[in-house]
Each structure stands twice: as structure tokens, then as C-alpha cells.
Write a structure and sequence with these properties.
By secondary structure, the chain is of the alpha+beta class. The protein is built from 3 helices and 4 strands, in the order E-H-E-E-H-E-H. A hairpin with a 4-residue loop joins strand 2 and strand 3. The longest helix is centred in the N-terminal third of the chain and has 14 residues.
């Protein structure tokens, strides 16, 4: 699984978060997407790497500015892993 963290400028409220989340869900195959206007970021979990140029284009088309995109491996946290098991 892939974790994509997008730093976004222009989100001011929970409705902005919703616009970004809907934009990503409608344009890409994702497992989950969560945006935070207070952190200025969106975290996307997907099976495959998302095209960063397409991602930037889609987000900017709905009125927000993409500052950076960071892609890495996503490791699901489990209760047993938390306790060292």
C-alpha cells in the first residue's frame, strides 16, 4: 500500500476538506483519503502510486494550491504492533 501526503494551501474549513476529498475520490482509485485544513494537508492511502502531476492538476482545478507531494510505503498500524507483539 502507498501513502501519499499532499501539502495544500487554501483550505480554510471542513467544507474545503470535503471538496478536496471528493475531488480525489472522483479522480483516483483510493482506499482512504483524509484532509485537514488545520494541518494544510491531505493523506491518501492507495494500492498503487498516484500520478503526482494528475493529482496536482485535479486539486488545483477545484481552487487549491498544491505545495508538495510526498509518497511512501504505508504500514498499517495494529494494536499488537503498538504493544510490540
Amino acid at each position: 500500500m502507498i501513502k501519499t501526503t499532499v501539502k495544500i494551501d487554501g483550505m480554510a474549513c471542513s467544507m474545503c476538506e470535503s471538496h478536496v476529498n471528493d475531488c480525489i475520490r472522483n479522480n483516483f482509485r483510493v482506499k482512504s483519503v483524509k484532509s485537514s485544513h488545520t494541518k494544510g494537508e491531505c493523506v491518501i492511502i492507495s494500492d498503487n502510486e498516484i500520478d503526482t502531476a494528475g493529482l496536482k492538476s485535479a486539486i488545483e482545478a477545484v481552487g487549491y494550491k498544491v505545495l508538495s507531494v510526498e509518497i511512501g510505503e504505508y504500514k498499517k498500524k495494529s494494536l499488537f504492533g503498538f504493544f510490540g507483539g
